[in-house]
Amino acid sequence: MRGAMQYGGVNNADPELTELRSTGAVSPGGATPNAGNTTLLVTNPGVGIGVQVGEWPAIGSAGIGVISSGNAKGLWARASQNQFCTGIDAEGRNGVRGVSLQGDASDAGVEGTATGFNSNGLIGEANNGPSSYGVWGKSTTGLAGAFYGRVHVFGTLTKSGGGFQIDCPGRETERYLNHSYVESDDMKNLYDGMATLDENGSAQVVLPEWFSGLNQDYRYQLTSVGQPAPNLHIAEEISKDGFLIAGGLPGSKVSWQVTGNRKDAWAERNRIPVEEPKPHEMLGRYLHPEVFGKPDTEGEQYLREEMLNARRKGINGVQPGDLEPDAELPR
Fold first, then answer.
1. Which of 122, 217, 271, 302 has its CA 20 to 30 A from that of 241?
2. What is the β-pairing status of strands 163-167 and 176-180?
3. What are the residues whose beta carbons fall under 8 Å from the beta carbon of 96, sequence distance 6 or more?
4. DSSP 3-state assignment of 7?
5. Among candidates 304, 311, 328, 8, which has minimal Cα distance to 136?
6. Whole-angstrom Cα distance, residue 243 to residue 205?
7. Residue 167 and residue 124: Cα distance in Å, rounded?
8. What gap in Å lies between CA 53 and CA 48, rounded to an integer?
9. pLDDT over threshold 50, residue 331
């Protein structure tokens, strides 16, 4: 290692300093390390920098600021509980990169754990450009994301398909049961129920008090159960309290179904466009090229993935020349 090192209040500017080695413990700054063979322990009780490695701003494309290895932890950093303190703060094209080389389902390239009350295990934020991702997960063999617990999306959830999967009733340990979602080109809600007609062949269906505040553009469907009812109809449409069924046989049962489109404040400001043009950078590309018999190179994610792969190769010492000179991520 060549360059300058400052520790213990002394600035060592010897350009010929080549190595700092320890078989036991070295503790600049007067701190006492534990007996775990600490090679270098730096403490900084002030507001400055404990260790700065490399030139700032950095010059070059292949330099490595810190290489650290260990049987337990290659790099361990700890900050105080002050709200402005950070254990590790990294900046760059990739601020932090974690790679899990071997192991099992419990190992991870990056692991985030929060023990503070109402704190977060992982925060991802990206606010520059319509194609920026706060969190990007991808897998060609497993799952791009797995969530054990409740999930809340504060916004619009867009997908290519979906459904639920549970243990198949009656064969819980042998099979899964899959069902698909019911889709619509509008923000449609569906309600149904059973009604028993009175002596006049009618029934008042009572709806929740929030129903009219949430829904509009109602659609109705009635089915007589057990016997024909050709005169069965909606005598009074939905009002604040519900709707009236009439024209059936006294004492008979009626299956009813009502749909309504959302009109709440959030829905009114966030209508889902049924059709929308693709942005310029996605013209000629497919969300799922494989279903059209097209190669992956015609997919919308191809350029992003190729640039990620090229950067990974560059980090490992290979020049990232896999892309055309003009290839850019969508902006």
1. 271
2. antiparallel
3. 88, 90, 110
4. strand
5. 304
6. 5
7. 33
8. 14
9. no
Per-residue pLDDT tens for 84-99? 667 777 776 777 777 7
pTM here is 0.70
Contact 15, 2 (CB under 8 A): yes
pLDDT digits (tens, 9 = 90+) for 229-260: 999 999 999 988 799 999 999 999 999 999 99
Q: List strands edge to edge, sheet with 233-236.
A: 203-206, 242-246, 233-236
* Category of 170 on φ-ψ map: left (φ > 0), alpha (ψ -120 to 50) or beta: left
- CA–CA dist 45, 321 (Å, integer): 45
SS3 236: strand
Domains in the chain (CATH in brackets) are 188-266 (2.60.40)
Rounded to an integer, what distance in angstroms lies between the CA atom of residue 157 and that of residue 154? 9
Q: What mean pLDDT is predicted for residues 204-214? A: 95
With CA atoms as reference, report the closest residue to 39 among 51, 55, 28.
28
Highest mean pLDDT among 10-14, 231-235, 272-276, 278-282: 231-235
Query: Hey, which residues does 10 pair with through a beta bridge?
Result: 7
Phi, psi of 128 (to 5 degrees): -120, 95
CA atoms within 13 A on the CB side of 98: 11
Which amino acid makes up residue 123? I
Q: What share of the chain is helix, strand, coil (3-state, %, to 5)?
A: 10, 20, 70
58-70 as b/e: b if 16+ CB within 10 A: eeeeeeeeeeeee
Q: How far apart are CA 239 and CA 281, in angstroms?
A: 48
Listed ranges 39-48, 217-226, 298-307, 308-317; the one with the highest mean pLDDT: 217-226
3-state SS assignment for residue 147: coil
